[in-house]
Structures are given as structure tokens and as C-alpha cells.
Design a protein that fits this description.
This protein folds into three domains: 31 residues; 219 residues, no CATH class; 45 residues. The chain has 13 helices and ten strands. Strands 1, 2, 3, 4, 5, 6 and 10 form a seven-stranded antiparallel sheet that branches. It has a three-stranded antiparallel sheet with strand order 7-8-9, with no helix packed on it. Strand 7 and strand 8 form a beta hairpin.
Length: 359
């Protein structure tokens, strides 16, 4: 039987529909209904507890932390070198570090705060202030009104950057906690050296951030205040009671009910089906920068995740040696006559192993 709860529900529904179509199969249909175990989305989330003293999140089989960084528009050589040095020398090998760029439409509080210094005065102040506020609120809900012929996705968004990291740890020993605390200090110091300000995310901030990600309400411009329950697991506090997720062929449908009103949002996921044949490191930075270009920006709220894993250099060097020797041997046989590209591949792997050997 599949371990995927969504597949289990799909199989049960298919069996139920088939049973209802057949004559005198009501008993079987009732049996299928009785055996169905509806999955809870909150149970799929790994988050469990937060240790206030260490600032770490304690899950069933992992332990980790989360930071929020101030987004920066652009970078220079010193920032790139500082972050590159952190990734190559400070992070444990084989454990992913995730960087999340979130574009949020919950900007109502920020609009009101920003308009306080640009308020109107005089007899019609209240009326004009309401018009100004409505103008920016509508821009956040849809987009700014533009002259005819200009179709640019100009809107208001709150951009936030998060860094998350977790490593396997079942016993949560004091040694593991001290090691993780030290890693947090090193990473924060590295970001500080790159002129990027960070702050730790505690349990209260965590359920608000993850709750906003999971319970997306396209009709809301204000964040929902959540009360932290110290006696309940974090995964249950991140999901609304009215949360309803439907799986479609090409997308997910998220439904919520808030203040007596229903909302529906369509969720799409984009990822690389395969690695590109030609890729340049600077293209990645250009792609992120394009998000701030009026013509290339994304008007819908989104979450962009970049996962980085530092491989073990010794292991990778050994694999490169084996690959090079195999290709180099094939390039000197009749195999190269049928597959001419083997000589080029052998040369590329030879250059790669030299770079790995030189550090």
C-alpha cells in the first residue's frame, strides 16, 4: 500500500465511485467510506517544538533554525566573496541550506504606516486621505492604473528573505545543540560581514510566517495575528481549521473560510525538469534581479526557494577521477569512433578533477 496519503484518498474515492455505479453495491460503498482515513495537512509538516534557550527548532528526527535577512537590491564583489567563503568553508557537507524569497500581498499595515507622513490637511483632509489610501490598496490588490498601451504588472509587494537549515538529530544531545548554536553564530557573522542584517525567527514569528505561506488568502491585505500556544505542536498552529486543499492535474486549489467569507486560490509549482546544457553562474543573479524589472516582475504572490548543498570535496574528487579514467580509456579505443563526444567529455572531467584537487 502506498505511503502517500493523497494517493490513498484517490484510490478510496475511485473505489467508492465504482461501487456506486454498480447495482446492489451500496454495502461495499459504505465499507469503503468506513475504511477511509482522511489525511491532515498539518501532519505532513515536520515542525514540532521550539527551544527558547537555544533558539532552535526541535522536530521528531531533525533540529534546525530559521533566520530572516534584509533583502538587498544588488551586490558587489566583496559581498559575493563573503557568501561564497561561507558556503565553501562554514557549512557542513551534504546538508541543505535553503534560502526563500517571499513576495507577500499583506501590505495593508505598511501602506497605512507610510501614508502617515503624506497625509492631507484642511477641510477635505479625511476625504482625500481615504482616496489616497484606496488608491494604494487597490494597487496592492490588483495593480497600479497605467496609461493606455502600457501593460506592466506594477503592484505593491512586501519582499522577505528567510534562511532555513536543519540536520538529522534524534537524541537532541547537548553536543548537537552546542554545535548547531555555534553554526548559527558563524552564519550570522558571515552575513554581517557581507553587510546583510539578519535576525533569528522564534516560535511566534515562525507560526506567523509559515501560516502566511500555507493559508494564502487572495482577498486579504492584512496579516492575521496568531496566538502561540506553548502546549500545542507548531505544525498544528500553522494550518487554519478551514484549510481545504484539492489536488488537480496541473495545480492545487486552496480554500479558506474567514469572517464568514470563502476564498479560493490556485497554487502552481515551477521547477527545472532537467539541468540546462549550458549554464553560467551569473545568470542566476540576473534572474533574481529581473524580478525587480517592471517588465519581468511577477505580479502574483510567490515563494522562490534556492537550495544549496555543499558536497564532500574528497568524495567528489574521487568520483571525478573515476569518471575521467573511464572516459579517457574509452577515448583511446574504437568507442570514440562511434561516440566522438567522449574525447571532449574526458577533457572536461580532467579539468574538473584538477580544480577539485587544487581546492
Amino acid at each position: 500500500m502506498s505511503n502517500n496519503p493523497l494517493e490513498a484518498v484517490t484510490q478510496a474515492v475511485n473505489s467508492l465511485v465504482t461501487a456506486l455505479k454498480l447495482p446492489d453495491e451500496s454495502a461495499k460503498a459504505n465499507e469503503v467510506l468506513g475504511e477511509m482515513s482522511f489525511p491532515q495537512f498539518s501532519r505532513l509538516l515536520p515542525y514540532r517544538d521550539y527551544n527558547q534557550e537555544s533558539g532552535l527548532f526541535m522536530n521528531d528526527t531533525t533540529m534546525g533554525f530559521m533566520l530572516e535577512a534584509i533583502p538587498i537590491n544588488g551586490a558587489n564583489k566583496s559581498i559575493v566573496e563573503a557568501l561564497d567563503h561561507m558556503l565553501r568553508t562554514k557549512l557542513p557537507r551534504g546538508i541543505p541550506l535553503c534560502i526563500h524569497l517571499m513576495s507577500s500581498q499583506l501590505v495593508g499595515d505598511r501602506i497605512e504606516y507610510g501614508l502617515r507622513e503624506f497625509s492631507w490637511s484642511g477641510e477635505q483632509a479625511e476625504r482625500f486621505n481615504a482616496i489616497t489610501r484606496a488608491y494604494y490598496m487597490k494597487a496592492a490588490a490588483t495593480q497600479f492604473p497605467l496609461p493606455e498601451g502600457m501593460n506592466l504588472p506594477l503592484t505593491l509587494r512586501h519582499y522577505r528573505v528567510f534562511i532555513s537549515y536543519c540536520s538529522p538529530s534524534k537524541k537532541k544531545s547537548r553536543a548537537d545543540i552546542l554545535e548547531m548554536e555555534n553554526l548559527v553564530k558563524i552564519i550570522r557573522a558571515s552575513f554581517h560581514g557581507a553587510k546583510i542584517t539578519t535576525q533569528t525567527v522564534d516560535a511566534q514569528a515562525f507560526i506567523e510566517i509559515v501560516g502566511e505561506m500555507i493559508n494564502h488568502n487572495p482577498d486579504s491585505l492584512y496579516p492575521k495575528r496568531r496566538q502561540l500556544d506553548p502546549y500545542s505542536d507548531l505544525n498544528y498552529q500553522c494550518v487554519e481549521d478551514s484549510f481545504d486543499l484539492n489536488v488537480r492535474a496541473d495545480y492545487l486549489t486552496l480554500g479558506l473560510r474567514e469572517n464568514g467569507r470563502n476564498s479560493t486560490a490556485r497554487i502552481l509549482n515551477f521547477h527545472l525538469a532537467r539541468n540546462p546544457e549550458i549554464a553560467f553562474l551569473w545568470n542566476m543573479a540576473d534572474n533574481y534581479s529581473n524580478l525587480l524589472n517592471p517588465e519581468l516582475s511577477i505580479s502574483c504572490p510567490f515563494i522562490l526557494t534556492l537550495t544549496l548543498v555543499v558536497e564532500d570535496q574528497v568524495k567528489t574528487h574521487s568520483e571525478a577521477n573515476l569518471k575521467y579514467m573511464d572516459l579517457e580509456k574509452k577515448s583511446k579505443t574504437s568507442y570514440a569512433k562511434w561516440f566522438p563526444s567522449v574525447e571532449k567529455e574526458a577533457k572536461e572531467w580532467g579539468e574538473l578533477r584538477q580544480r577539485l584537487g587544487s581546492g
